[in-house]
Backbone:
């Protein structure tokens, strides 16, 4: 496994809090796009790309699809109800719980907060997570979890330019492959790494380090596309540059360390992202 610190990419003067309809390009230009900036403290380091990457590695949850909103949260609540438990996660509850990566870990953390003893929490979390996964896969097969608007077009543009595509996610293999095959077909991503393939989940960089090994590329030739601060940290700590496309749950997170931050994959929203990935104006 490759180990190492992220390269020194140059100072960024502030962190940012954003409103819908924005895009920030760090180290580049983003003309005529409204943005509200608030300095919040010392920033991590980042830089814009100067040449086209050989590969782009995508996160899945919240990045390729709004899985959290359309699939995971409803499936968690259905699993709770089926088990006769009084729990229900609303949007705010779930947004806070997303700081815990991994569905089983998220359930276990929540159960402990509800006063369930340690061993019992672990066993119940395992049962609930299995039930939740079955329900989530059913929703994927029913077409209830669509790709984010505009994403398919971006993937086509990258493939046409000869950029290799891969996936690095904390999700489990069973539902990840179902989702990817259903949304994009089996041949779009040459490499799919899940939380089952690595010893630690994001923000640990293990999944990106493994991606670099299997792609046989140096970190400076690969860009990650993420939706969350945990994902940015994982990518940057593996030495990758990282672009961010936010969603409703992550819009206000701290994305210092990213090279570009946009609020969607629509043609207008993703223009700065496309410019960095394909070096187009």
Residues:
């Amino acid at each position: 496994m490759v180990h190492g610190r992220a390269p020194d990419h140059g100072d960024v003067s502030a962190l940012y809090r954003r409103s819908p309809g924005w895009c920030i390009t760090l180290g580049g230009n983003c003309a005529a796009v409204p943005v509200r900036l608030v300095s919040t403290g010392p920033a991590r380091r980042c830089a814009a790309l100067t040449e086209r990457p050989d590969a782009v590695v995508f996160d899945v949850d919240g990045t390729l699809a709004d899985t959290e909103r359309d699939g995971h949260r409803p499936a968690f609540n259905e699993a709770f109800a089926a088990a006769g438990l009084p729990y229900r996660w609303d949007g705010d509850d779930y947004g806070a719980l997303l700081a815990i990566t991994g569905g089983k870990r998220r359930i276990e953390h929540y159960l402990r907060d509800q006063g369930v003893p340690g061993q019992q929490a672990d066993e119940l979390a395992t049962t609930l997570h299995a039930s939740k996964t079955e329900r989530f896969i059913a929703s994927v097969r029913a077409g209830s979890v669509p790709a984010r608007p505009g994403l398919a077009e971006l993937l086509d543009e990258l493939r046409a330019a000869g950029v290799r595509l891969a996936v690095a996610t904390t999700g489990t293999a069973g539902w990840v492959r179902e989702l990817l095959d259903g949304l994009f077909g089996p041949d779009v991503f040459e490499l799919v790494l899940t939380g089952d393939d690595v010893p630690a989940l994001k923000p640990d960089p293990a999944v990106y380090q493994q991606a670099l090994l299997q792609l046989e590329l140096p970190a400076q030739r690969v860009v990650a596309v993420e939706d969350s601060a945990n994902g940015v940290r994982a990518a940057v700590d593996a030495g990758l540059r990282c672009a961010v496309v936010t969603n409703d749950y992550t819009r206000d997170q701290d994305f210092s360390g990213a090279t570009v931050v946009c609020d969607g994959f629509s043609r207008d929203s993703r223009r700065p992202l496309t410019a960095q990935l394909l070096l187009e104006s």
User: Anything to note?
Assistant: Residues 23-65+147-278 form a domain with the Rossmann fold fold (CATH 3.40.50.1000). The longest strand covers residues 164-168. The chain has a mean pLDDT of 85. Residues 246 and 263 are 5 Å apart (CA to CA).
